[in-house]
Amino acid sequence: MKQFVDNINIMVVDDEIVMQESCCRVLEKEGYSAHSVGSGEEALEVFDCEPFDLVLLDLKMPGIGGIETLQRLKEMDPGITILIITGYPSIETAVKAIKLGAYDYITKPFNPDELRIAVNRALERKTLVAENQHLRQQLHAKNEADIIIGHSEVMRNIYELVRRTAPTDSTVLITGESGTGKELVARAIHTYSLRSERPFVTVDCSALVETLLESELFGHVKGSFTGAIQAKYGSFELANGGTFFFDEIGNLSLDIQAKLLRVIQEKEIKPVGGEKSVRVDVRIIAATNQDLKQAIAQKTFREDLYYRLDVVPIHMPPLRERKEDIRLLVNHFLKKYNKKRENPVTNVKPETMKLLLEYDWPGNVRELENAIERALILEDGETLVPGCFPWLYESRNVKTANNNHKIYSLEELEKVHIQRVLRETQGHKGRAANLLGIDRKTLYKKIKKYGLPDIEKN
Length: 458
Prior knowledge:
Elements: E1 9-13, H1 17-29, E2 33-37, H2 40-47, E3 54-58, H3 66-76, E4 81-86, H4 91-99, E5 104-107, H5 112-145, H6 153-165, E6 172-175, H7 182-191, E7 200-204, H8 210-218, H9 235-238, E8 243-247, H10 254-266, E9 268-269, E10 278-279, E11 283-288, H11 292-297, H12 303-309, E12 312-315, H13 326-338, E13 347-348, H14 350-358, H15 364-378, E14 383-384, H16 390-399, H17 410-424, H18 429-436, H19 440-450
Parallel strand pairs: 1-2, 1-3, 3-4, 4-5, 6-11, 6-12, 7-8, 8-11, 13-14
Antiparallel strand pairs: 9-10
Helix pairs in contact: 2-3, 5-7, 13-15, 16-17, 17-18, 18-19
């Protein structure tokens, strides 16, 4: 708890100035940041502009009373922890306040030790609730970490890198094509690290609008830009003590890259529109499907940031380079999706496996998983037959077209396959990207690269 005390912001709401000053003095001596107001109206106004971890709220105040202030604070932030300040005659009201969502109450008069104990207990409870949520997430993450499937030599090397890297705080850069499992490796590193019981926060740099990315990462104060109707914590603060995963970091603008470099070097952030910096303790893992050295040469990625990130490099190989893992992956995905079926598929015909092994899987493991899930929808029996993968025949036919034994390049096969998937989805880019196991941005790049015509949706 004390480790994160510098970031704890507490508001004291009481119409007595002496009470405000004495409470703030005790709290600040403990290392907390304290802000006092004298009415419910002022509390609501300040709360709307600045994030708080705890509110000390007096019940007896002129104007908006404590109960109404409590209800409105809870409407603004259902997760806020509120500690009621009450006199003995209003104990019944305090109990009512607890039923309405307050954590506990402290009765006047109280001494500094009683205040410290009550506040620490309230904050510990808040931390416990957050940690329980994170533990549930980590349990899911542990299960996900277990599905990095493969017994090929290259995968065994990656397992060893994860084992050696996880207990450290070193920054990790994971490279590889879309769909190879970069996020799974990042989660595995976090799960087996000393930070495993703290948050694992992911930001997909390709999915956020550039104008909102800075606010997403660093938070903002109210009114800092159009639409900032209230203050917001950024992802870095949410990840405090844990691991921050940048997915597709190559998509960050040079401006955001410079600010990220500052976070790595100085371990502090500044919310958009804010004046005070906030200390953060996070381990950074980044992933990209781009060639960052080429991006450096093209001046779209900072060289100093690259070397800060590339402390421990891990490269995820494409599935076509570890085809000996395909059988394991197929069996794993069968078990995963059989849980949703009344009649599980338990067999794979040899000719079906041969078909799967011959295909180059440009969408990698994600595409294979999507293919197995789709096949189980098509198959009513207990055995996967080649007919469950009709679209693979076209890829195989391209290789043997015209009976001239021409060797087709991977790009030619990829172009044909993307055309087929776009036809099947009637030009719906989102569905096509999902079936291919790539993100929409990558799909648009490939459509432009191959000059594929736009297919009209019905």
